[in-house]
C-alpha cells in the first residue's frame, strides 16, 4: 500500500453516491498503479470499504467474493447500485427539467447534460440539449432571443444564454447604483413636486410622473384627455386635437402645445401596451434630472474607444453628434437611416446616417455587443444613451428606474386620513357645532315651492329607507309647513342610491 500512487476514499453507501463514477475512478486508480488483473479484486475489496464488501457478500452468496474477478464483482455491484432504467423514464425526466430560481444558466446546462447521459439520444443529442435549454430556461427575455436566432446550435445557445445572464447581472449592479444616486441627490421637497405633476412624453402621449408602477385599476389620469377615469372608455380617443390635428387626444395633453423633453423617433398613431409602459417608466428618470441639475453619465467602450454618454430614457435611439463622430471614428462609413428624429422642441433633426459599432461596458468585460449608433448634424454635449441600447445592455433598466420614486401623493393621502380619521370615517356621522348659517337672498326674492318628482316604483322602497335613515341620524327634520321647497333627485350608485336636493 505504501507504493500506491494517489488514494481513493471508501464508498459511502448511506449518502447514495454515484457508484458508476466511483467505479470509473477505481479503474483509473488501478491503471496509474499498474495493478495486475489478479490483484484488482483484492485491492478493490480493501479500498471500497466494509459497507460495499457486506453488500457484495449478500449479492453473490453463498459464493466467496474473494474468489471472484474484478469484472464479476463490478457487474454484480452495478446491477445493485445502478440498475438499468427505462429509456422512456429517463427521457421523461430530461424533458420536464426546468431552470430553478437558484440555478445559474451554467448550472442548468450542466444539469441537463447529466440527465441526457442516460437518454440514449445518439446523433440527436445536440438538438435535444438545444431544445431543452430553450424550453427550460427561466428568463423569458433570453428565451425570446434564442427563439429569434437562426441556425441555432447547442453550443451557440449556451454562449448566448450565459452572455445575456451576465448582462442582466451587470444591469442589477447598475440598478443599485442608480437607486443610490437618486437617494443621495433627490430632496424630499423635490419628490413632493414630482409626485403631483404630469408631463407629455413623445408624440401626443402624456406620461405620469408620480406613479412609478403601470396603472392596473384603469382609474389613473387619462393620456387622451387628462382627466381621472378609465382611459379605455375615454371618448377622446376618437377626437382630433386642435393643436396638432392628430387623432387620439385633446389639446390639453398635446405634446406640441406643452413641448417635449426628449429625442423621439417618429412613431405611428397607435402604440402598443409595451410602448405605454415604457413611457410611464422613463418619466421618473427625466424628473430626477429635472429636479437635480446633475446628469447621469456612463462611460463605455465603443470600438475600443472610451465614450462618455448621458443616460436618456426619453430617447428612443442612441445619438452622437457628427463633430464627435468624425473626431473619434474618422474611418467609419455611415449607412442610410430612414427614420425621422425630433429634438427637445419638436423640430426635426438632421440625421446623417447610422453605423454599427462594437460596444463593451468596460475594458474588463468580455461581452461585446454590435449596436446601431445614429449620427446627427446637431450640437450635442454628450452622446445620448437611448432606449435601443439600454434594452440590450441593461435589460432590467425599466424596473430599476420605475421603482425609484414611490407614489408620494398616495402616502400623503393615507397620512392625512390617519391624522383626521374621524372626518373620513364613513360609518360615523358628525355635525358642525355652535355655528349659525345665514342665507342672503335678493331684495325681491319670492319663495318657491316645487312639487316633488315622481320616483320609479322599482326604487321607491329604497328611497324611503334612505330618507328614514337620514331622519333617524338627524340629517333631516320633519316640518309641517315651509314656504320654500325643492324636490329631491335620486342619484343611482353601484352600492346604493344618493338623495340630492
UniProtKB/TrEMBL annotation:
Hydrolase among keywords: yes
Biased composition regions of type Polar residues, renumbered to the chain: 206-216
Pfam families reported for this sequence: gag-asp_proteas
BP term (GO), one: DNA biosynthetic process
GO molecular function per UniProt: aspartic-type endopeptidase activity; endonuclease activity; nucleotidyltransferase activity
Ranges where the record places region Disordered: 184-223
Keywords per UniProt: Endonuclease, Hydrolase, Nuclease, Nucleotidyltransferase, Transferase
Residues annotated as domain Peptidase A2: 307-389
InterPro entries given in the database record: DNA/RNA_pol_sf, Peptidase_A2_cat, Peptidase_aspartic_dom_sf, Retrovirus_Pol_polyprotein
Domain of life: Eukaryota
Listed name of the protein: Peptidase A2 domain-containing protein
Organism: Photinus pyralis (Common eastern firefly)
